[in-house]
Model the fold of this input.
Amino acid sequence: MGVGIEVRGLKAWYGKSLALKDIDMSVPANHVTAVIGPSGCGKSTFVRCLNRMHETIPEAHAEGEVKVGDIEVYGDGTDPVDVRRKIGMVFQKPNPFPTMSIYDNVAAGLRLNGFHNRKQMNELVERSLKLSALWEEVKDALHKQSGASLSGGQQQRLCIARALAVEPDVLLMDEPASALDPISTSKIEELIFQLKQHYTVVIVTHNMQQAARVAEFTGFFLMGSLIEFDKTEKIFTTPADKRTEDYITGRFG
Amino acid sequence: MPDPGKSRSSKLSAWRKLANVGATLFAVTSAVLVLVPLLAIFIYLLIKGVGAINWAFLTQTPKPVGEPGGGMANAMVGSGLILLIASTIGIPTGIGCGIFLAEYGRNRFGDFVRFTADVLNGVPSIVIGIVAYSLVVLRQKHFSAYSGGLALGIMMVPTVARATEEMLLMVPNSIREAALGLGIPKWRTTLSITLRTASAGVITGCMLAFARVAGETAPLLFTAFGNQYWNLNPNQPTAALPLQVFVYAISPFDEWHRQAWAGALILIVMIVVAVAAVRIVTSRGMLKGAS
Done:
């Protein structure tokens, strides 16, 4: 089941430049939350801070309070590796492991974390591929074909399956459909809608229609600050802040 | 009225076609020129050497001076033994060093290691032989396959290390991020994801280093030393094909000259077979569509 995310006073830096200024946000469990904003507003940085992927970039660091379920993400003694096992991530460009078969791609997270029960592994791989709506298309080629041989849209669903296989509580998606065609995009969007039954989903998107279609809550970022966070409906019909209104009506960004 | 634009474009297209043909010809000629020395050497070796290859040559040890016949079987096995020792030392060290350079070496110390590896690559092989001589032979007070293997192993390290580094750097960062995002620890990501993705190139680098040291003679002169008899004990003086070829080639006997040619041919065949075998074995596991 999904868990909620509480963010208090989150700041993030790239070297000396401050990319996120004091973010407070409460992401509800088992809902889809969209993060929108113009390029460079910090929306990707924000989700990368939630599973401590931000600090894998040289000279980048973050501080503040992030609570995902009962995990203090930036608590003393919290291992980022443990955090990332609980918080799955899907990236902008599909990035399957090119030398691995479809099966091995999905099983990678389990296997490399020391999980070796073959029968359970088979079940988890099948379940994950079914959840990501890829099972029917690949079930006959699981071991024969490389993950890289699939189409872009299929690759992205494979990456979603790979993230789901380690059974996270939260799924972060960083513009998961921006490199895909409209048909693949709509498949991914449908999938996101299904996923919220089991997971808390946070999706970064620069496509406002997409946010309106898939998300129940939306946060609007501008220049490293969270300008407004509310129900998607409210953000898109009666935003409280002038800047949000300007952005969603296409006056800038 | 003639269209000036059209005549200009047709002139341009004629020039482009000419330039295209010229560039293609240049590329093809260069490729052929690269093949010429390799083929010439191989054909010359075949002509000179194939006559002396017979069952005795492949199964017997050298005969004393003056006696006809004999072979280089002990040198072939000895070369295999020395190269095995060299690969056991050189490949893991080189790959480890390459991993360090690619994944943790974006700093001063990394630059220093990189520079050292490049310098080591340029050190004359006989100097490496002296190093192995003083490290192992002087201490043990006898020649051995170990010391020869150490000398060749040291020579393999910089080639393997730089090839591994280059190949790891070619793996897109998004692959590393995907693995880290799954909660896979950094060391595991490097070994099981990044290195695996780069494996084809890393193996090529290892084979290149292997082929290069397989023909080395100088560093073996005072380490493995050579041996007229069968020896499978790596702690004893051991025969090696390049050594045997060297000794036979500078001898005054026609029979030995013929055997030297045959030995050189066998050496090249051994290298080609080893490289091909590794390629076949490693490509068998490759998947459809994997790059």
Summary: The interface with chain B takes residues 51, 53, 56, 58, 81-86, 88-89, 91, 93, 95-101, 108-109, 112-113, 144-146, 148-150, 159, 162-163, 166 of chain A (CB under 8 Å).
